Amino acid sequence: MLTVSEIAKIIQGEIEGDPDIEIRSISKIEEAQPGDITFLGNKHYEKYLYTTKASAVIVDKNFQAHQPISQVLIRVDNPYLAFTQLLMHLQPQTTFEPYVSPSAFIHEKATVASSAYIGHFVVIEEGAQIGEKCIIYPHVYIGKNVSIGQNTILYPGVKIYSECQIGNNCIIHAGAVIGADGFGFLPNEKGEYIKIPQLGNVIIEDNVEIGANTTIDRATLGSTRIGRGTKLDNLIQIGHNVEVGQHNVMAAQVGIAGSTKIGSYNQFGGQVGIAGHLKIGNRCQLAAKSGIIRNVEDGEILVGAPAIPHRKFFKLHILYLQLDEIAKKIEKLEKK
Question: Which residues, 6 or more positions from 144, have their beta carbon under 8 angstroms from its beta carbon?
Fold first, then answer.
């Protein structure tokens, strides 16, 4: 339990109200009860500020209430960031002592750091290297010559195929598959598809997080690469020889076809589809369900399928909503 004053120190906020009120938990603004703290980071939720039972609310330093409120306010520069900092401070820390389950299979030529945790029924093949303080949950498969850096967590059921490289401080969630064959087939003279051998690997750089059931295919030659600090949601498919730069974020069900090159600091909404052999620049924003069939320059904001600049999309959307009315007017003119 923390006081409002203690919380304000953690998030570097300014208190407006009683600093000695005790806070027992964190809640959503529409569900909070006395003793809870919540935050207001989106103006669409302001209506809940006037009905919430929370004892304290984190708000923007420039926020002005439009109705009387009784809650203590903690004013900060960025409510989302402050709330995240508070969550990180209060997050229960799960610790794992060094351990190797008797049911785990570790090849005699694999190397496992003495500080690692290896859960039940883990398989670690020949030549694999597991770094210090890694946590490998049950039923993980780690193939031949895989290397995994320090402080990396592999959740249950992760599969990492041979020769792949995973960096330091990575998190790979349950069911993810790293290094399966790329989708490479060549039709012969009969129209039958012949499998192209996939001889490359996947390289995951440091501080990458990969969501549950996401798949990243190995390269045909060379490496499929995920850059430092990139965060991938659940159910994402990344094809062979794709290169993703640093600090990108991708929401669920993004699909990236083979050999596409992606820069850094991009934001991809859910179900974005990107054709193969394209180049995506830096600091781009691709709205949910956008279909990308051309190269994207730095800083572009695209919407739609095929994707077009967002301003043009919304202008056309307004016209689209008026089509029924326009059609009726044309019909009247034709009758005249």
Answer: 125, 126, 127, 128, 162, 163
